[in-house]
Model the fold of this input.
Amino acid sequence: MYQEFYGFTRLPFERDIAPDDLFTSQPQQEMAARLTFLLRQQGLGLVTGDIGAGKSTAMRAFTARLDPNRYFVIYLSNPTVGISGLYRDILAALHHQPPFSRPRQVAAIRAALADLAQSKRRFPLLVIDEAHLLPPHAFEQFRLLIADQMDSQSLAALVLVGQPNLRDLLRLSTNQAFFQRLTVRYHLPPLDLQNCIAYIKHHLQLAGHHGAPLFADDAMTRIFDYTKGVPRQINLVCTMALLAGMIDKKEVIDEAVSYTHLTLPTNREV
Done:
Protein backbone atom coordinates (compact mmCIF):
# COMPACT_ATOMS: atom_id res chain seq x y z
CA MET A 1 0.00 0.00 0.00
CA TYR A 2 1.22 3.53 -0.70
CA GLN A 3 1.12 4.34 3.04
CA GLU A 4 4.20 2.19 3.60
CA PHE A 5 5.88 3.27 0.35
CA TYR A 6 5.76 6.97 1.28
CA GLY A 7 6.25 6.43 5.01
CA PHE A 8 2.91 7.88 6.09
CA THR A 9 1.73 7.34 9.64
CA ARG A 10 -1.86 7.32 8.34
CA LEU A 11 -3.66 7.63 5.03
CA PRO A 12 -3.51 11.35 4.24
CA PHE A 13 -6.79 11.83 2.39
CA GLU A 14 -9.19 9.76 4.46
CA ARG A 15 -12.24 11.35 6.11
CA ASP A 16 -11.60 10.32 9.74
CA ILE A 17 -9.72 13.45 10.80
CA ALA A 18 -10.14 14.97 14.25
CA PRO A 19 -11.95 18.34 14.15
CA ASP A 20 -8.92 20.20 15.49
CA ASP A 21 -6.81 18.83 12.62
CA LEU A 22 -9.17 19.78 9.80
CA PHE A 23 -7.92 22.23 7.19
CA THR A 24 -9.63 25.61 7.51
CA SER A 25 -9.81 27.79 4.42
CA GLN A 26 -10.55 31.51 4.42
CA PRO A 27 -14.17 30.92 3.30
CA GLN A 28 -14.61 28.42 6.13
CA GLN A 29 -13.26 31.00 8.58
CA GLU A 30 -15.80 33.50 7.24
CA MET A 31 -18.57 30.93 7.64
CA ALA A 32 -17.53 30.32 11.25
CA ALA A 33 -17.53 34.06 11.97
CA ARG A 34 -21.04 34.42 10.58
CA LEU A 35 -22.31 31.44 12.54
CA THR A 36 -20.78 32.86 15.72
CA PHE A 37 -22.81 36.01 15.10
CA LEU A 38 -25.90 33.85 14.52
CA LEU A 39 -25.44 32.19 17.92
CA ARG A 40 -25.26 35.56 19.63
CA GLN A 41 -28.47 36.59 17.88
CA GLN A 42 -30.13 33.22 18.58
CA GLY A 43 -31.24 33.24 14.97
CA LEU A 44 -31.85 31.12 11.90
CA GLY A 45 -29.03 30.33 9.48
CA LEU A 46 -28.53 28.86 6.03
CA VAL A 47 -25.29 27.32 4.75
CA THR A 48 -25.21 26.02 1.19
CA GLY A 49 -22.53 24.56 -1.03
CA ASP A 50 -22.09 22.27 -4.00
CA ILE A 51 -21.71 18.51 -3.57
CA GLY A 52 -18.35 17.73 -1.99
CA ALA A 53 -17.56 21.37 -1.13
CA GLY A 54 -16.98 20.53 2.53
CA LYS A 55 -20.16 21.92 4.12
CA SER A 56 -20.60 19.10 6.62
CA THR A 57 -16.88 19.03 7.43
CA ALA A 58 -16.79 22.77 8.03
CA MET A 59 -19.91 22.55 10.18
CA ARG A 60 -18.42 19.70 12.17
CA ALA A 61 -15.28 21.74 12.79
CA PHE A 62 -17.33 24.76 13.88
CA THR A 63 -19.52 22.86 16.35
CA ALA A 64 -16.55 20.95 17.77
CA ARG A 65 -14.88 24.22 18.74
CA LEU A 66 -17.87 25.57 20.65
CA ASP A 67 -17.61 25.69 24.43
CA PRO A 68 -19.67 22.69 25.67
CA ASN A 69 -20.38 24.54 28.90
CA ARG A 70 -22.15 27.29 26.96
CA TYR A 71 -23.68 25.47 23.99
CA PHE A 72 -25.58 22.24 23.46
CA VAL A 73 -25.33 21.04 19.85
CA ILE A 74 -27.98 18.80 18.33
CA TYR A 75 -26.76 17.56 14.93
CA LEU A 76 -29.32 15.92 12.66
CA SER A 77 -27.75 14.26 9.62
CA ASN A 78 -30.65 12.31 8.12
CA PRO A 79 -33.75 14.39 7.34
CA THR A 80 -35.24 11.57 5.27
CA VAL A 81 -36.66 10.06 8.48
CA GLY A 82 -39.44 12.66 8.31
CA ILE A 83 -40.49 15.36 10.74
CA SER A 84 -41.66 12.96 13.46
CA GLY A 85 -38.41 11.04 13.09
CA LEU A 86 -36.39 14.23 13.45
CA TYR A 87 -38.42 15.20 16.50
CA ARG A 88 -37.61 11.82 18.05
CA ASP A 89 -33.91 12.33 17.22
CA ILE A 90 -33.98 15.73 18.92
CA LEU A 91 -35.59 14.29 22.04
CA ALA A 92 -33.07 11.44 22.09
CA ALA A 93 -30.22 13.97 21.92
CA LEU A 94 -31.86 15.82 24.81
CA HIS A 95 -32.06 12.52 26.76
CA HIS A 96 -35.85 12.51 26.77
CA GLN A 97 -38.17 9.63 25.99
CA PRO A 98 -40.19 10.75 22.94
CA PRO A 99 -43.98 10.77 23.33
CA PHE A 100 -46.04 9.02 20.70
CA SER A 101 -48.06 11.94 19.31
CA ARG A 102 -46.46 14.83 17.43
CA PRO A 103 -48.08 17.61 19.53
CA ARG A 104 -46.63 16.03 22.66
CA GLN A 105 -43.26 15.69 20.95
CA VAL A 106 -43.31 19.41 20.13
CA ALA A 107 -44.26 20.31 23.70
CA ALA A 108 -41.52 18.06 25.11
CA ILE A 109 -38.86 19.54 22.80
CA ARG A 110 -39.82 23.11 23.64
CA ALA A 111 -39.79 22.39 27.37
CA ALA A 112 -36.39 20.66 27.16
CA LEU A 113 -34.85 23.48 25.10
CA ALA A 114 -36.16 26.09 27.52
CA ASP A 115 -34.79 24.13 30.47
CA LEU A 116 -31.34 23.93 28.85
CA ALA A 117 -31.12 27.69 28.44
CA GLN A 118 -32.77 28.73 31.70
CA SER A 119 -31.66 26.13 34.24
CA LYS A 120 -28.44 24.76 32.80
CA ARG A 121 -27.24 27.94 31.09
CA ARG A 122 -26.45 26.10 27.86
CA PHE A 123 -27.86 27.57 24.68
CA PRO A 124 -29.07 24.95 22.17
CA LEU A 125 -27.86 24.90 18.57
CA LEU A 126 -29.88 22.75 16.20
CA VAL A 127 -28.16 21.76 12.93
CA ILE A 128 -30.01 19.97 10.14
CA ASP A 129 -27.62 18.63 7.51
CA GLU A 130 -28.78 17.63 4.01
CA ALA A 131 -31.71 19.99 4.64
CA HIS A 132 -32.50 20.15 0.91
CA LEU A 133 -34.07 16.71 1.43
CA LEU A 134 -36.70 18.10 3.80
CA PRO A 135 -40.26 18.41 2.47
CA PRO A 136 -41.21 22.03 1.70
CA HIS A 137 -43.66 22.26 4.62
CA ALA A 138 -41.05 21.22 7.19
CA PHE A 139 -39.21 24.56 7.40
CA GLU A 140 -42.11 26.47 8.89
CA GLN A 141 -42.70 23.68 11.39
CA PHE A 142 -39.11 23.91 12.60
CA ARG A 143 -39.33 27.68 12.83
CA LEU A 144 -42.41 27.37 15.02
CA LEU A 145 -40.76 24.60 17.04
CA ILE A 146 -38.04 26.92 18.33
CA ALA A 147 -39.90 30.24 18.16
CA ASP A 148 -40.62 32.22 21.31
CA GLN A 149 -44.31 32.86 21.80
CA MET A 150 -43.68 36.62 21.69
CA ASP A 151 -41.48 36.26 18.54
CA SER A 152 -38.51 37.77 20.34
CA GLN A 153 -35.71 35.37 21.28
CA SER A 154 -35.74 31.77 20.07
CA LEU A 155 -35.51 28.66 22.20
CA ALA A 156 -32.56 27.59 20.03
CA ALA A 157 -30.47 28.68 17.10
CA LEU A 158 -31.14 26.70 13.93
CA VAL A 159 -28.79 26.17 10.98
CA LEU A 160 -29.85 24.45 7.77
CA VAL A 161 -27.03 22.94 5.71
CA GLY A 162 -27.60 21.73 2.17
CA GLN A 163 -27.09 21.95 -1.55
CA PRO A 164 -27.78 25.21 -3.44
CA ASN A 165 -31.37 24.25 -4.31
CA LEU A 166 -32.16 24.63 -0.61
CA ARG A 167 -32.31 28.39 -1.21
CA ASP A 168 -34.97 27.83 -3.85
CA LEU A 169 -37.04 25.79 -1.41
CA LEU A 170 -36.86 28.57 1.16
CA ARG A 171 -37.92 31.17 -1.39
CA LEU A 172 -41.26 29.44 -1.92
CA SER A 173 -44.21 31.54 -0.80
CA THR A 174 -45.05 28.98 1.89
CA ASN A 175 -41.60 29.48 3.45
CA GLN A 176 -41.36 33.28 3.37
CA ALA A 177 -41.81 33.56 7.14
CA PHE A 178 -38.71 31.38 7.54
CA PHE A 179 -36.69 32.96 4.73
CA GLN A 180 -37.25 36.52 5.91
CA ARG A 181 -36.05 35.64 9.40
CA LEU A 182 -32.70 34.24 8.28
CA THR A 183 -29.92 35.91 10.25
CA VAL A 184 -27.13 34.36 8.20
CA ARG A 185 -27.03 33.15 4.60
CA TYR A 186 -23.72 31.80 3.39
CA HIS A 187 -22.65 29.83 0.33
CA LEU A 188 -19.40 27.91 0.84
CA PRO A 189 -17.36 28.09 -2.38
CA PRO A 190 -14.81 25.53 -3.59
CA LEU A 191 -11.15 26.09 -2.75
CA ASP A 192 -9.13 28.44 -4.93
CA LEU A 193 -5.70 27.37 -6.22
CA GLN A 194 -3.81 28.73 -3.22
CA ASN A 195 -6.09 27.00 -0.74
CA CYS A 196 -6.08 23.80 -2.80
CA ILE A 197 -2.29 23.62 -2.58
CA ALA A 198 -2.39 24.42 1.14
CA TYR A 199 -5.07 21.74 1.62
CA ILE A 200 -2.93 19.06 -0.04
CA LYS A 201 0.16 20.01 1.97
CA HIS A 202 -1.84 20.09 5.19
CA HIS A 203 -3.13 16.56 4.69
CA LEU A 204 0.32 15.26 3.85
CA GLN A 205 1.70 16.81 7.04
CA LEU A 206 -1.08 15.22 9.09
CA ALA A 207 0.04 11.88 7.65
CA GLY A 208 3.58 12.46 8.88
CA HIS A 209 5.25 13.83 5.73
CA HIS A 210 7.66 16.62 6.67
CA GLY A 211 10.46 16.27 4.15
CA ALA A 212 10.89 17.53 0.60
CA PRO A 213 7.69 18.33 -1.33
CA LEU A 214 5.86 15.15 -2.28
CA PHE A 215 3.58 16.77 -4.87
CA ALA A 216 5.26 18.98 -7.44
CA ASP A 217 3.71 22.38 -8.09
CA ASP A 218 2.64 21.39 -11.62
CA ALA A 219 0.89 18.29 -10.27
CA MET A 220 -1.03 20.31 -7.68
CA THR A 221 -2.03 22.84 -10.32
CA ARG A 222 -3.27 20.01 -12.53
CA ILE A 223 -5.22 18.52 -9.63
CA PHE A 224 -6.85 21.89 -8.99
CA ASP A 225 -7.77 22.27 -12.67
CA TYR A 226 -9.51 18.89 -12.74
CA THR A 227 -11.23 19.04 -9.35
CA LYS A 228 -12.23 22.73 -9.54
CA GLY A 229 -11.19 23.00 -5.89
CA VAL A 230 -13.83 20.59 -4.55
CA PRO A 231 -12.29 18.93 -1.45
CA ARG A 232 -13.97 15.55 -1.90
CA GLN A 233 -12.59 15.29 -5.41
CA ILE A 234 -9.17 16.53 -4.31
CA ASN A 235 -9.06 13.68 -1.78
CA LEU A 236 -9.91 11.12 -4.45
CA VAL A 237 -7.53 12.43 -7.09
CA CYS A 238 -4.61 12.75 -4.64
CA THR A 239 -5.19 9.17 -3.50
CA MET A 240 -5.14 7.99 -7.12
CA ALA A 241 -1.96 9.98 -7.74
CA LEU A 242 -0.22 8.40 -4.74
CA LEU A 243 -1.22 4.93 -5.89
CA ALA A 244 0.14 5.69 -9.37
CA GLY A 245 3.33 7.08 -7.85
CA MET A 246 3.83 3.93 -5.79
CA ILE A 247 3.34 1.74 -8.87
CA ASP A 248 5.99 3.75 -10.75
CA LYS A 249 8.19 4.05 -7.64
CA LYS A 250 8.11 7.83 -7.88
CA GLU A 251 9.40 9.76 -4.90
CA VAL A 252 7.71 12.91 -6.20
CA ILE A 253 4.25 13.14 -7.75
CA ASP A 254 4.66 15.33 -10.81
CA GLU A 255 2.39 16.27 -13.69
CA ALA A 256 3.68 13.34 -15.75
CA VAL A 257 2.42 10.88 -13.13
CA SER A 258 -0.98 12.58 -13.12
CA TYR A 259 -1.24 12.72 -16.91
CA THR A 260 -0.02 9.18 -17.61
CA HIS A 261 -1.74 7.20 -14.88
CA LEU A 262 -4.83 9.06 -13.77
CA THR A 263 -8.21 8.94 -15.39
CA LEU A 264 -9.43 11.92 -13.47
CA PRO A 265 -13.14 11.98 -12.60
CA THR A 266 -15.51 14.67 -13.67
CA ASN A 267 -17.69 16.59 -11.23
CA ARG A 268 -20.59 14.24 -11.94
CA GLU A 269 -18.60 11.06 -11.38
CA VAL A 270 -17.49 11.79 -7.81
